[in-house]
Write a structure and sequence with these properties.
- This protein is an alpha/beta fold.
- It has two domains: 140 residues, Aspartate Aminotransferase, domain 1, CATH 3.90.1150.10; 239 residues, 3-Layer(aba) Sandwich (Aspartate Aminotransferase, domain 2), CATH 3.40.640.10.
- It has 13 helices and 14 strands.
- The strands form three sheets. Strands 2-9-8-7-6-3-4-5 form an eight-stranded mixed sheet, with helices on both faces. A four-stranded antiparallel sheet has the order 10-11-14-13.
- The longest helix has 26 residues.
- The termini are far apart.
Length: 395
């Protein structure tokens, strides 16, 4: 076919995670690849009750269009929950419902980025954000990180020598892919620097409520005194990803731009999905549901870490997250995780090589493991096989 595609499409790469997930659809594959919540924890029976109530009491409204901003009662509940959980002072007028937080990422790129603008990001960072921003032609500048989050001394040094910085994109809580959480002092210093240079921040927070241990920390949004932080949230990890309901929380003059872009993208997010989530939050205890999720994920995190300590060679390192879905493995520099993956797939185990999470390439000696969507027996067996393969590469 003689179709000439837009130049921007050439910059968009297929998600390596999605390509690996195609392989993992085979039932014999033990997959640590996806960032999937555990489906056995979805509130199926409760949602049967909710769906019936919504359709019986407001069926015509639930099946009709709604406003671009979203269903007001749900926006009110989101604002209340953000204020209680993340220390913010958000009203529902500052909340826009999106079709998952991934849509919020795409809109952020569309609103903020011109070709050649700079995105500051953690090194490594979320592959889905890299892909969302890439079509708008930015340059990514990676800021080094350690176990306490983004290294703020490096951030300031980079800002001082870099032109055309348009935004910073960060995941301070249980980061994807590393599972790390920023310390309180790093958050405060980051916001002090960002405020001084007046750089917009995309705070991506899909995992913030999935804390298994330790103390909850203030969100960047709660520390923002200049209206620079654009907060992205979602129900995908604490509730059900199939509803595709997320949100953007920002100052109203910023949110207006997101509303305009959403009107051109899909007019609105699903009316019935928004209403069903709002009714669930009225009828049932979402906090109790999240506690159940965290109990299961903590047990799986503990089992994953203890198995890795026992089965993996001692010359590699991995993170021990306090929450979230992932742990991050670093191999000796001479070992390429993509080569390990080839051998691993031969033994029916899948993971995501870490090079995909670095927008400027490199770091091929790393990989990400997901422990949330894995029955305990398969988790142990998969890590045992992977440990054996890693041992072969080390010898």
């Amino acid at each position: 076919m003689a179709i000439t595609f837009a130049g921007r499409i050439s910059s968009i790469k297929a998600s390596e995670i999605r390509e690996i997930l195609k392989i993992t659809e085979q039932p014999n594959i033990i997959s640590f690849a996806g960032g999937l919540p555990a489906p056995e924890l979805f509130p199926v029976e409760e949602m049967k009750v909710v769906a019936r109530k919504v359709l019986e009491e407001a069926g015509r409204q639930a099946l009709q269009y709604t406003t671009t901003e979203g269903f007001t009662p749900l926006r009110q509940k989101i604002a209340q929950r953000m204020n209680a959980k993340f220390g913010t002072a958000v009203t529902h007028q500052k909340v826009l419902i999106t079709s998952g937080s991934q849509q919020g990422l795409d809109f952020s790129g569309k609103i903020l980025l011109n070709e050649g603008d700079v995105v500051l990001c953690e090194s490594p960072t979320y592959l889905g954000a890299i892909n969302a921003f890439m079509s708008y032609g930015p340059r990514f500048v990676e800021v080094p990180t350690d176990d306490r989050g983004m290294i703020t001394e490096e951030l300031e040094r980079i800002i001082e020598k870099t032109e055309r910085i348009k935004m910073a994109y960060v995941i301070p809580d249980f980061q994807n892919p590393t599972g790390r959480t920023w310390s309180a002092d790093r958050r405060e210093k980051f916001m002090e620097i960002i405020g001084r240079y007046e750089i917009p921040v995309i705070e991506d927070n899909p995992y913030g409520e999935l804390r298994f241990e330790g103390q909850s920390l203030k969100s960047l949004k709660s520390l923002d005194t200049k209206g620079l932080v654009i907060f992205l949230g979602t129900f995908s990890k604490t509730f059900c990803p199939g509803y595709r309901i997320g949100w953007v929380a920002a100052e109203e003059e910023i949110l207006e731009k997101y509303i305009l872009v959403k009107q051109g993208a899909d007019l609105q997010s699903s009316t019935i999905a928004q209403r069903e989530i709002a009714v669930y939050m009225e009828m049932f205890d979402l906090d109790s549901h999240v506690r159940e999720i965290n109990s299961v994920y903590k047990a799986r995190r503990d089992l994953a870490i203890s198995t890795m300590e026992r089965e993996f060679p001692g010359s590699l390192s991995f993170t021990r997250p306090e929450g979230g879905l992932f742990t991050w493995v670093e191999l000796p520099s001479h070992i390429n995780a993509r080569e390990v993956l080839v051998k691993s797939l031969e033994r029916e185990v899948a993971f995501v090589p870490g090079g995909s999470f670095y927008p400027n390439g490199g770091h091929e000696n790393t990989f990400r493991l997901n422990y949330s969507n894995m029955p305990e027996d398969r988790l142990v067996e998969g890590l045992r096989r992977l440990g054996s393969i890693l041992g072969e590469f080390m010898n």
